[in-house]
Amino acid sequence: MSTAYKDIQPVAEPGTGYVAKGDALMRVDGRAKVTGQARYAAEHVTPDMVFGVVVSSTIARGRITALHVDEAMAVPGTLEVLSHLNRPHVRKLDLFYKDMTAPAGSPFKPFHSEGILYSGQPVALVVAQTFEAARYAASLVRVEYAQEPHETELLPHMARAHTPSRLKAGYSPPPKETGDAQAAFDAAPVTVGAQYYAGVEHHNPMEMHATTVLRGEDGHLTIYDKSQSSQNSRWLVTHVFGLSKDKVTVKNPFVGGAFGSGLRPQYNLILAVMAALQLERSVRVVLTRQQM
């Protein structure tokens, strides 16, 4: 039996007699979500859609020296293996990759070059007619690297820390130092020295990062992106690929959790658009839990 909105009334807290201030509210997306009718970024389909699976770097620093894709391309249904070697034209300057909420520094540019900056970096995108074919073909891509030493310890390299020339807008300056902490520590009758490490935590929302690009007959791109800011995703796509705003529409009516990870566009957005432009097809790219 369904309950009409007008029949939902606030009730008193048990044992108190007090009623919370205000009326009960209906979430505008509540019914669609609890009945399974809400379609998220990876749940939009068209008859001609193809599927992309990301191949990730297995080293933390270095460069790609060879990319072997013959076995992957031999898998029935495989259409393309995109990488820095054959991607469509993109703008190269950092300023085009700085989205609307990008921090200071040089932004990450997928498939920009053979350089490897971090473990798990996307090095190729296998596109096939089915997700299963794309996933299997991606497992057959072999990458050769020239590996370089990487640094993961911060304390030994504090002298190389970047000191910003000015504060970021909206942030207060750090408090001024008072007293002499080191002198007090040296003069203390008892001192305790130890190293403490906090465990790594990953905010993994239920909805994986995903992008579905629906390509219209006129070349218009309708993009469903797992994002908390459709304007930000649209800004990035138009600037990276040099597209006019009237050729790109980004929608994200439902977000299956984000914890802030959806505030900025992820690399799956750029890779999905790359594939859509290269193949002139509608494309879906979904990251795995490990790739998130």
Structural class: alpha+beta
**Name of the level-1 CATH class of one domain:** Alpha Beta
The strand line-up of the biggest sheet is: 3-5-1-10-7-8-9
Largest sheet: 7 strands, mixed
How many beta-strand segments? Answer: 10
Q: Report strand %.
A: 15-25%
The chain-level mean pLDDT equals: 91
CATH architecture classification of one domain: Alpha-Beta Complex
> Helix-strand pattern, N to C?
HEEHEEEHEHEEHEHE
Task: Name the poorly predicted regions.
Answer: none
Assign an overall shape. Answer: globular
Helix content: 10-25%
Radius of gyration: 25 Å
The N- and C-terminal alpha carbons lie at a distance of 41 Å
Fold topology:
Elements (H helix, E strand, L loop, with lengths): L29 H5 L15 E7 L5 E7 L1 H4 L4 E5 L32 E2 L5 E7 L2 H10 L1 E6 L33 H7 L22 E6 L5 E5 L4 H12 L6 E4 L15 H13 L3 E4 L6
Parallel strand pairs: 1-10, 8-9
Antiparallel strand pairs: 1-5, 2-4, 2-6, 3-5, 7-8, 7-10
Helix pairs in contact: 5-6
Q: Which descriptors would you attach to this protein?
A:
292 residues, alpha+beta, Aldehyde Oxidoreductase, domain 3, three-stranded antiparallel sheet, 6 helices, 10 strands, 17% helix, 18% strand
